[in-house]
Amino acid sequence: MSAVTEAPTVAVLAHALDEAQRSATPIEQLSAGGQLGLGAAYAVQHAIIARRQSRGEAVSGVKLGFTSLAKARQMGVDDIIIGTITDAMRVDDGGRFDRRACIHPRIEPEVAYLLGPEFDPESEIADERALADAIVGVAPALEIIDSRYLDFRFSLDDVVADNTSAAGYVIGPWVDPRLAAEIGNRGVRLEIDGRLAETGSTAAVLGHPLRALAAARRLASAHGFALRAGMVLLAGAATAAVPLPQRGFVEASIAGLGRVAVHVD
Ligand code: OOG
Asked: Could you say which residues of the chain have pLDDT below 50?
């Protein structure tokens, strides 16, 4: 009798990735068994989020990945992706992040937007300017990523299935959303215990981080994500990611926008 191997179901893959995250134990890349396909990869991500919701977590927003060349080059991928953030991933500005919950975490500086009611992909928004008017806040942010795959290596489908490596995020003070139009090319610094770890410009994010708004709406409607008022949108890292220290104080600053920090232990 010839053995017929069936492709693992979305539920099986979601279970494997969810358990990898919960136990902080890396797994082999899903693509090791053949390419998943982008549609199936997003289905796995949505199934992971459903599992987290069944444990009491609430979706707090979305994040974009690979919006900067620095990140796309670092990870060897070439397309923008969207992931989900939940309230359990949120750390207060200046708060503590428990590194032991992670496998091989990294941290990166970002711009965050707070979405208003008009931002919904279903609403008719004519142009980029109107989209900028549909945000109600902008802030500096830190994102902690932690691939659930061995050696932090993945294909685009793998990383989409793994909820774009989302592990934690910190939002600095929200400021007037009108400032968002003015921070198209502002210096970004990432410091660990006062030592400079990365520098860059907000322009690294799609030429201007405001472009993340249109990209998020496009990806959200293409892949079944809701964008509701009060949600956070992380625009994607402005620099390459750096390893999260075992312990220490990590701070990001964006000129003219503000600072955000986290204690790691
Ligand atoms: C995937 C997530 C990428 C970004 O800001 O570009 C990302 C990864 O690098 O593990 O969050």
From this structure: 1-3
The dihedral through the CA atoms of 38, 40, 41, 42 has a sign that is positive
- 228-239 pLDDT tens trace: 999 999 999 999
| Whole-number Å distance between alpha carbons of 188 and 193 | 16
- The preferred substitution site among 75, 79, 206 for testing ligand 1, maximizing ligand atoms within 8 Å of CB, is 75
> According to the model, what pLDDT value does residue 2 have?
43
CB contact set of 159 (below 8 Å; sequence gap of 6+): 65, 75, 77, 81, 147, 165
Residues with CB under 6 A from ligand 1: 63, 65-66, 71, 75, 108, 143, 145, 147, 159, 164-165, 236-237
- pLDDT of 78 reads 83
CA separation (Å) from 127 to 117, 130, 132, 133, 136?
16, 5, 9, 10, 17
Provide the mean pLDDT of the chain: 94
Q: Hey, which bits of 47-186 come out as E strands?
A: 59-65, 81-86, 90-91, 96-97, 106-115, 135-145, 166-171
> What spacing in Å lies between the alpha carbon of 1 and ligand 1's midpoint?
45
Hey, CA dihedral for 74, 190, 202, 38, is it positive or negative?
Answer: positive
Q: In whole angstroms, give the CA distance from residue 170 to residue 168.
A: 7
Judge if ipTM > 0.85. yes
Residue 178: its pLDDT value, please?
A: 95
CATH superfamily ID and name for 10-264: Fumarylacetoacetase-like, C-terminal domain (3.90.850.10)
Taking the centre of ligand 1 as the mean of its atom positions, its distance from the CA of residue 74, in whole angstroms, is 10
